Structures are given as C-alpha cells and as structure tokens.
Amino acid sequence: MEGKSRMIRRVLIVDDDRAVREALMQTLQLEELNPLSAGSFVEAKDHITREFDGVILSDMRMPGRDGFHLLGYVQEVDPELPVVLLTGEGDIPMAVKAMGEGAFDFLEKPSASEALVRVIKRALKARWLVLENRRLTAKVRIGEVNQLIAGISGERGAGLAEQMADVEKALLVSAMQRHHGKASAAATALNLPRKTLYDKLARYEIRPEDFRD
Fold first, then answer.
1. How many Cβ atoms from other residues are within 10 Å of residue 95's Cβ?
2. CB of 34 within 8 A of CB of 79?
3. Concatenated DSSP letters for 101-166?
C-alpha cells in the first residue's frame, strides 16, 4: 500500500455483540480505516464477493453460523480474501486449526489496539496486492487477445487455433507461477472450475508441482 491514495481501507466486522462491534469500529476509524458492521454471517454474506476491496474481522463463536462457517464460505468465494478471527482464551487450538484451513490470522480477545491494527493493516496490504495482481492480469489478457487478433491477417505458419492455444497455455503458466502451484487459487484467479483447470493443465502437460517452492 504505497501511499494513502492506493490503500484499501475496508474492514467487515462480524460479531453478534453490538458493544464489541462498536468498539472495534471506533479503533479502526481512529486509524482512518473504513469499517462495516454485521451482527451475523447472514448480514455479512452479501459483502463477501471476489470483488470485495477489503478484509474480514470475525468473531469465532457466534450463535448459528459461526466464524468457522464464515471462513468456509469465504474459501469457496475467494480463497485470497483475508479473514482474521477473534478468539476467546479457550478457542486458541480452534483458531490454530482455522489457520490451517485458510484463515489469515487470529487475535485473542480482548486484543490490544496496536496488535489489532497491525494485523488488519497486514491483511489489507495482502488484499491490495491480490486485487492489483488481478487487475494487471486482466490487462495482460486483453493485451494478448488484441495482439492475437491483430496478428491473424499476417499469420503464415500456425493457424488461429494454435495461436489461441499458445495464449491459453501462457495464461495457465502465469497463473501457476503467481500462485506457487496451488491449483485451487489459480482456478479462482482464472475464473475456471477446478476440474476444468486440471483438464487444461493435463492437456498442456503443465505440472503444478513444478511451480511449488
């Protein structure tokens, strides 16, 4: 986040305790962030999209659908949308398990303001990088397609199908490189069903393990 003009500031706070939500909102507002408030997963759900330009701060224990349910839903919608969980003292093993299932981080309640702000800003930076990368990738795709169209009339060797296959393969390789061989994340970035991505990787003999650190 290089400068305030490029910084994303939105934080979706999900907690069934209104007093807690208001205290968290005040803390974030003092840091010039833009908190949104939801008292349940149902209230929060409409904000959880691939385009959401922010992060989620959620209590782990809530009546009905809890923080684990919210985390699972976010993982289905966008695995690269950071979820920070608030946990009680007895919930720490559960929070560690949630980290293994995709949570960005967790904070023990009550959390010091400095620790909360530090984690949230780190999550916001990660989200900004994801959204910026997607924006640049979309521009690259458009540029590649435009180049392909422009080159059709002067093409002498490979046919149009071969050219399009080259473009598709290049996009797949780029996505696998950016996501370090994680096929699920690459599928999300390319807006492809996971099975379709695996079929395409097999077609071009692209192996996810070749891109892992």
1. 20
2. no
3. TT--EEEESSPPHHHHHHHHHHHHHHHHHHHHHHHHHHHHHHHHHHHHHHHTTT--SS-HHHHHHH
pLDDT in tens, 156-173: 445 555 666 777 788 888
Q: Which of 151, 147, 123, 118 is nearest to 54 (CA)?
A: 123
- The mean predicted confidence, pLDDT, of the chain is 84
Architecture of domain 152-211: Orthogonal Bundle (1.10)
Question: How many residues are listed for the chain in this entry?
Answer: 213
- H or E segment at 189? helix 183-190
CATH 3.40.50.2300 domain span(s) along the chain: 4-127
CATH number corresponding to 4-127: 3.40.50.2300
Burial (CB count <10 Å: 0-12, 13-18, 19+), residue 192: middle
